[in-house]
Amino acid sequence: MAYIIPQKRLSMNPQASQAPRLSPERERHISPPKRVSMDPQAFQSPRLPPELERQIFELCALSRPFFVSRLMLVAWRVREWVTPILYHTIAISRASSPMLDAFSQYISTKSPQYMKNRCFPSFRNAVHIHNLYIGFLDAYLFEFLHSYPAAKNLYINARIMDRSIALRFADFTPTRLYSTDQFFTLLLAPHPFFSQITHLELIACLDHKVLLKRIPLLPRLTHLSFRDPRLIDISPRLLRTCASLSVLIHLPRAKEIELHRMNGRALTSLSKDFRFVYMPLKAHLGDWLAGARWGTDYWSRAEAFIAKRRAGEIDELQFMLFDDEDLECIEEKDT
């Protein structure tokens, strides 16, 4: 059996279909609907002040140098802010390490021809280079050296065979130089190249007699370090002839202390001089990168050590310092 449900009849009276009216008192309490603003700025995200925004991006770039190239893709203004940070420290090296900057990691995967045509910083960006590590010297690199004279912290871990190669660096006026003594035989002091040097590390020494003659001629030299243990014998004389020298450091590669092989008389004299520090260091490139980026390297640690000796905080005859355990040892394959 089927059941038919009767539908409600619709009233034809227009008054009956309208919504019930509210009383005047309730209408006063109902706010009118908000009108949507048509101003385009109302739909934009809130923006930080440019000064604060720049500080954020620069801090990000400094804390993670490897990602600077990605930050440059955010916006044109960000590119202008972080470009100096990208080129601040350049390591042209075949060594592989996370500490090396993005530019160095990038060129390590490219062919020499690609590096020549595309990779090396343009002259406009080269003005931002303050720290330059050169691990190898090839013909295509020579074409770009004239663009890098702004670098004040220069580390040349490559053999300089003749004067023509040394002259490629003639326009540089570094304040910190890490190199062999070949510059002193190929560029005779007082050459403008040596005029601003305050920190000098001798990676290797071929002629001790030349050093005794040339190092006292450096007008602003205050810090000197060397790796060759044979220079221990002439160190007391260097301290006497270089009146401006405030720090002298011996940097043996190994921690095995072989002081018995050194000149006992020279070592006795050096142990009484607060300026001398015996400081084994295995992470040479890692220490240089740390100093270039954060300002803390073996020079600063030696200065603090000498200050403690002078203040009597440690034994005045203690001249050995061991403290590079936290540094990453980057193998230097370039020489």
Explain this structure.
The chain has 335 residues and is of the alpha/beta class. It has a domain at 88-311. The protein contains 16 helices and eight strands. It has an eight-stranded parallel beta sheet. Helix 3 packs parallel to helix 5. The longest helix has 14 residues, at 50-63. It is globular and about 110 Å long.
Write a brief structural summary:
By secondary structure, the protein is α/β, with parallel strands linked by helices. It contains 16 helices and eight strands.
- Total of DSSP H or I helical runs spanning 4+ residues: 16
Name the structural class: alpha/beta
Mean pLDDT: 75
Q: Please state the overall shape, judged from the principal axes of the Cα atoms.
A: globular
Radius of gyration: 34 Å
Percent of residues in helices comes to: 25-40%
Uncertain segments are: 1-12
Number of extended strands: 8
Strand content: 5-15%
How far apart lie the N and C ends? 105 Å
